[in-house]
Amino acid sequence: MILIIAGSKSDEQIVNKVKKVFDENKVEYEIQYASAHREPDRVAELAKKDYDVFIAIAGLAAALPGVVAAHTKKPVIGVPVSSKLDGLDALLSIVQMPKGVPVACVGIDNGENAAYLAMRILGVK
Q1: To 5 degrees, how large is the angle CA 14–CA 61–CA 51?
Q2: What are phi and psi of 84, to 5 degrees?
Q3: What is the pLDDT of residue 60?
């Protein structure tokens, strides 16, 4: 099972890109909205649940993918959202993770590639 977690309802357009790919390929997933900054305990709780892959969607400081990765040993895919600085701030926040806290990163607003990568990780055909 895959968890799509977005930092805010304002990220819903990117969530919908992920959902579309999963729905077309009949992949099971759940969706949650939780902010790494405003709801850190909730994010940690979600990251500790028994999902196989996490897709974390966030803009601005984009701490969400890193916080999820800090609380799980499962694969985390970060999707940077273009809200300020054309999404470069979010992109750099996601790819510049410290050693031992890996996060895969797809292109800015590229929810589709996050879905395809999650399916490859799980071996979905």
Answers
A1: 55
A2: -125, 155
A3: 86
d(CA 19, CA 108): 17
CA dist., res. 59 & res. 37, Å (int): 12
Cα separation, 71 vs 48, whole angstroms? 6
73 CB-near residues (< 8 Å, 6+ apart): none
Which tokens in the block code for residue 82? 């273009």
Mean pLDDT for the stretch of residues 74-93: 93
Nearest alpha-carbon partner for 2 in 49, 40, 58: 49
DSSP E strands, 24-91: 29-33, 53-59, 76-81
Amino acid at 37: H
The stretch 62-78 carries a mean pLDDT of 97
| Domains along the sequence of the chain with CATH | 2-122 (3.40.50.1970)
Q: Is 11 annotated as a binding residue?
A: yes
